[in-house]
Amino acid sequence: MPQTIEGHFDAKGRRFAIVAARWNSIFSEQLIAGATDTLVRHGANETDITLVRCPGSYELPQVARRVAQKMNVDAIICLGVLIRGSTPHFDYIAAEAARGIGAAGIESGVPTAFGVITCDTLEQAIERSGSKAGNKGAEAATAALEMVNLFDAIDESSNG
Ligand code: DLZ
């Protein structure tokens, strides 16, 4: 068996930012609730979670980058809801959100989690924000938590 380095899911004593886009707030509020609930159930103190709201998913990377620079947090969970409708904006915004949220994490060294749901229909948005297909905010918070602990495990490893 190879030596395995992996992250566990203990949020105790950790500080998190949730960056959430205001668009489609009926769904994004569910993602915020799912992310917060996941962090608290894994031991985070609610006072150690800061919610930062921004206009839309396009702005998520810019805000994540600024939060990483200015706030003392262990991870940043980015949440948004994109519904295709009939607008070509969708593809541009989705691409920028995905690329930029990743870039913010790579540049800063602070893990960023991608909790943006990209849907064709309202029904899909309902499914992914807390019904049939789970809650993408909770999933993103779980990933952020694993990344925080994984980075610590890498730093502490003898090869690190
Ligand atoms: C403009 C726009 C559109 C059409 N749709 C969405 C959406 O479904 N979800 C979302 O988060 N944001 C949307 N926006 C707003 C853009 O993300 C951005 O805030 C504006 O283009 C201003 O830069």
Summarize the model shown:
The chain has helices at 25-41, 60-70, 89-108, 122-128, 136-156, and strands spanning 16-21, 49-54, 75-83, 112-119, 129-131, 134-135. It is of the alpha/beta class.
**C-alpha Rg, in Å?**
16 Å
Q: What is the highest CATH level, the class?
A: Alpha Beta
Largest sheet: 4 strands, parallel
Poorly predicted runs: none
Q: Can you give a write-up of this model?
A:
It is a single chain. The protein has 160 residues and is α/β, with parallel strands linked by helices. The protein has one domain (21-118, 135-148): Rossmann fold (3-Layer(aba) Sandwich), CATH 3.40.50. 48% of the residues lie in helices and 21% in strands. The protein has helices spanning 25-41, 60-70, 89-108, 122-128, 136-156; strands spanning 16-21, 49-54, 75-83, 112-119, 129-131, 134-135. The protein has a four-stranded parallel β-sheet with strand order 2-1-3-4, sandwiched between helices. A hairpin with a 2-residue loop joins strand 5 and strand 6 (134-135). Helix 1 packs across helix 5 (136-156) and helix 2 packs parallel to helix 3. The chain starts with 15 loop residues before the first strand and ends with a helix. Ligand DLZ binds at residues 21, 23-24, 55-59, 80-83, 87, 89, 93.
Layout of helices and strands, plus pairs?
Layout: E1 16-21, H1 25-41, E2 49-54, H2 60-70, E3 75-83, H3 89-108, E4 112-119, H4 122-128, E5 129-131, E6 134-135, H5 136-156
Parallel strand pairs: 1-2, 1-3, 3-4
Antiparallel strand pairs: 5-6
Ligand DLZ binds next to β3 and α3.
